[in-house]
């Protein structure tokens, strides 16, 4: 029976590895976000480069599109699923990419590192009607991360012109939002024998705040040494399930999108 990808996962930046949030942009044949880039040379200078006489070797492309479901396959579990990034995560990723000077880091087909490829412009679409991405023929949602790249590598430029390389795909360290729960204060910690301890709080307010971080709602009560304490999530089965997921996702992997 053919498997169907039904799981949808929100990816977030790993706060312990922010400098690696986007550590490279890869030029690929089949971009995961299903959006080809536009490149410019003297034959296509009617868009924005009308007065340029020499080849500009520029390409413009979305690097990440918020809330777009991206198909993934995990060979370790033989599971198909979708991932997505919120506007907030896309914006933060774009900022970390520049903050940590990764604008000169590029690969080809997510494999070999290449030189002579530089991100020279980066912006977030704020107004879908007024954004300059429209000049390049794009129609993209608010919050999309756009980049302009200069290609000084002759071999790479030829592959772009030939149509072998069609789009961009990011490389970085992201985690399932649930995975971050293990590292938020006293929320969920690793107990004895690698088991996950479930968090308990003396006040409803504390438990509600943690529930929000965990992506669930409400709290439920427990009794500890004769005192009433509070656990995040309205149902104990929910937080138990989250803990089980955490145990299965200890190993971080570099993600490519």
Provide a compact summary of the structure.
Helix content is 18%, strand content 32%. With 257 residues, the protein is α+β, with helices and mostly antiparallel strands.
Task: Give an overview of the whole structure.
The chain is built from 4 helices and 17 strands. It has helices at 87-99, 154-162, 204-214, 236-248, and strands at residues 7-13, 24-28, 38-40, 58-64, 70-74, 79-84, 106-108, 112-114, 117-124, 145-151, 167-172, 174-176, 189-190, 196-197, 219-224, 227-232, 255-256. A hairpin with a 2-residue loop joins strand 15 (219-224) and strand 16. The two termini are 27 Å apart. The protein is α+β, with helices and mostly antiparallel strands. The protein has a 5-stranded mixed sheet, with no helix packed on it. The model is unreliable at 42-54 and 181-196 (pLDDT under 50).
Strand content: 25-35%
**Class derived from helix and strand content:** alpha+beta
Measured as a percent range, the helix fraction is: 10-25%
Mean pLDDT: 77
Helical stretch tally: 4
Uncertain segments are 42-54, 181-196
What is the topology?
Elements: E1 7-13, E2 24-28, E3 38-40, E4 58-64, E5 70-74, E6 79-84, H1 87-99, E7 106-108, E8 112-114, E9 117-124, E10 145-151, H2 154-162, E11 167-172, E12 174-176, E13 189-190, E14 196-197, H3 204-214, E15 219-224, E16 227-232, H4 236-248, E17 255-256
Parallel strand pairs: 1-6, 2-7
Antiparallel strand pairs: 1-12, 2-11, 3-4, 4-10, 5-6, 7-8, 9-10, 11-17, 13-14, 15-16
Overview features:
5-stranded mixed sheet, 257 residues, 4 helices, elongated, 4-stranded mixed sheet
């Amino acid at each position: 029976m053919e498997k169907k990808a039904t799981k949808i996962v929100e990816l977030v930046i790993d706060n312990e590895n922010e400098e690696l949030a986007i550590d490279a942009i890869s030029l690929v044949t089949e971009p995961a976000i299903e959006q080809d880039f536009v490149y410019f040379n003297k034959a296509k200078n009617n868009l924005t480069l009308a007065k340029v006489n020499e080849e500009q070797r520029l390409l413009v492309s979305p690097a990440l599109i918020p809330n777009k479901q991206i198909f993934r396959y995990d060979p370790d579990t033989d599971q198909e699923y979708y991932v997505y990034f919120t506007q907030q995560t896309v914006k933060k990723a774009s900022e970390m990419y520049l903050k940590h000077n990764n604008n000169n880091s590029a690969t080809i087909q997510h494999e070999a590192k290449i030189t002579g490829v530089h991100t020279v412009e980066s912006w977030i679409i704020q107004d879908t009607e007024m954004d300059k991405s429209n000049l390049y023929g794009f129609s993209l949602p608010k919050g999309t991360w756009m980049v302009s790249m200069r290609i000084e590598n002759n071999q790479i430029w030829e592959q772009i012109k030939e149509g072998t390389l069609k789009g961009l795909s990011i490389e970085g360290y992201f985690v399932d939002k649930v995975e971050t729960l293990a590292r938020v204060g006293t929320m969920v910690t690793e107990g004895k024998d690698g088991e996950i301890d479930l968090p308990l709080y003396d006040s409803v307010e504390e438990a509600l705040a943690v529930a929000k971080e965990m992506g669930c709602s409400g709290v439920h009560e427990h009794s500890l040494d004769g005192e009433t304490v509070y656990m995040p999530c309205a149902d104990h089965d929910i937080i138990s399930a989250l803990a089980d997921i955490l145990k299965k996702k200890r190993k971080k992997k570099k993600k490519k999108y």
